[in-house]
Structure formats: structure tokens, C-alpha cells
Amino acid sequence: MTTSLKGRRALVTGSLQGIGFGIAEALAKQGCDIILHGLGDAAQQAEACAAMKAAGAASAVAYTHDLSDASQIQALMKTVLAAGPLDILVNNAGIQHTASIADMPVAKWDAIIAINLSSAFHTMQAALPGMGERGYGRVVNIASVHGLVASAQKAPYVAAKFGLVGMSRVAALEYAAMGTRDKGGVTVNCICPGWTETALIEPQIMARAAAIGGDRDAGVRELLKEKQPSQRMSLPQEIGELAVWLCSPIAHNITGAAIPVDGGWTSQ
Ligand code: NAD
């Protein structure tokens, strides 16, 4: 059994920053060909591609398709698959908006469901058949603790993440028998992070800080105190290392899992 990910071709959505960048960089260190993606300008794309090559990527390209639009996702996947087989798909791009159901703008509901859930359906629909034919493939979907438990003020986010966990389990069943131990099989799993240091949660940190009249550090402490027993945030590279392990052929029998990285949040 080959244990190396060298030469594997990996697409990570939403990877110009945050958790996606951490995952792409961890895969780059393994010698993968990295396909970056995210909303960003040419300078950001060039900088991220250079960082991937510096980390050890065999190659790096970047795309900026808008994942709220199904036709753009299909165009992205057509471009990616026309250039070669895709071995690893990480559905990571996501957005957040916090408000009660009564106050949630309908446009936010639609955008969060489209970007955080439906986009993963479209990318998986395009990528999985080829993975099945080749007998090796990895889909790693970045869900959240909010794919396992709820919090108030997050109806579309929680609905999308529970949906992502459910859809991943369906895909895991459909592809469970593909491939062999030697080839590595085709697996579909979710990583479910708790609070992780990225731009996504900055508005929530600053809202907590404002509520108690404290600084950013005080805002972080307030967030952690409420739900994350370790009282420590995760870092994007820590999520990246778990994604690498899931992509390794040794993990051929781990499929349909939703793995929390949450400092005990969902154990309570
Ligand atoms: P981030 O805001 O730093 O990154 C999000 C990425 O998604 C960016 O690259 C952005 O360009 C991309 N994106 C957003 N809208 C897009 C669109 N319409 N089309 C294409 N790309 C788009 O956030 P992050 O914290 O790194 O989040 C990554 C994933 O991790 C998300 O799915 C998020 O829900 C999940 N997550 C984050 C945390 C956390 O605490 N940070 C916790 C649990 C789950």
C-alpha cells in the first residue's frame, strides 16, 4: 500500500485564507498538486500559490469561481477535471450570519444554504464518479460542531452543516465498496471544528468584546467560556493535519464519520 500523498491532485475550496489555506498547506507539505480556490484578487492568488510551492506542492493554481452560483461551480469542476483526475476534494468554503429566525434576512438563508451545503453537492457530483473508477478518492467536508449540535441565532448555518453531515454519510455509503485496501478506497468524511482562529468568527469575537466592554482577548475568552471546554481555539493547520491523515490510504475504512475538533464542545 502506498502511504504517500505525493502527486495526488487536491482541490480545496475557500483556501485563499483561514481553515482552507491551512488544509491546502498541509496537503502541499505532502507533495500534492494543489488547486486553490476562493474569493480574492490576483495578488492574493499569487501569494497563496507561492506559499503552496514553498511548502512543497508539486504545483499550485488558484480559481475564484463564486460558489453561490451552481453554474459557476459546474464551470470550476469542468476546468479542474479537464486538466486531470481529481484525487482529493475538500469542501471548505463557507459563510456565517448570526440573527434569530425572526430577524434572519431571506437572502442570508439562501446564500448560506447555497455556499455551505449545495456547493458540496455540485462538487461531489462532479468528482466522485472518477474517484470510484480509479478506486482511490477522498472527500473531506468541513462541517462544524454546528453539524452536530445547535446554537441560537444560527438557523441557516446549523441547517446547512447538519445537511452536509447527512449528505456526506449518503456519499460514504454510495462509494464504500469502491477500490481496495491497496488502492485506498473512496471515503467521504466531515471534520467538525469548534472555534478556530480565522476571519469568519471575528464579528462574533468583537460582538462579545463589545457586550462586556472588553478588548478582543476578552471577547475570545467569553466565546470559549460558553461552549469550548478546552478554553483553547484551534488553528487552521491543526485541521489541516487531520485532513491529511483522512486522505492517507491508511484511513481507507474511515468513511461517513463526522469528527469533532472542538475541545470537548459536543461531549457536554
Ligand atoms: P474564512 O472566512 O477565513 O474563509 C472562508 C473561505 O470561503 C474564503 O476563502 C472565502 O473566499 C470562501 N468563500 C466564501 N464565500 C464564497 C463564495 N460565494 N464563493 C467562493 N468562495 C467563497 O472562514 P474559515 O473559518 O476558514 O471557514 C472555513 C470553513 O470552516 C467554513 O465552512 C466554516 O463554516 C467552517 N468552520 C469554521 C469555524 C471557525 O471557528 N472558524 C468553525 C467551524 C467550522
Structure write-up:
- By secondary structure, this protein is α/β, with parallel strands linked by helices.
- It folds into two domains: 9-194 and 236-258, NAD(P)-binding Rossmann-like Domain (Rossmann fold), CATH 3.40.50.720; 198-233, no CATH class.
- Helix content is 46%, strand content 14%.
- It has eight helices and seven strands, in the order E-H-E-H-E-H-E-H-E-H-E-H-H-H-E.
- It has helices at residues 18-29, 42-55, 70-82, 106-134, 155-175, 202-212, 216-227, 236-247; strands at 9-12, 33-37, 59-63, 88-91, 136-142, 185-193, 258-261.
- Strands 3-2-1-4-5-6-7 form a seven-stranded parallel beta sheet, with helices on both faces.
- Helix 1 crosses helix 8 (236-247), helix 3 runs parallel beside helix 4 (106-134) and helix 4 packs parallel to helix 5 (155-175).
- The chain starts with 8 loop residues before the first strand and ends in a 7-residue tail after the last strand.
- The site of nicotinamide-adenine-dinucleotide (NAD) has 26 residues, from helix 1 and helix 4.
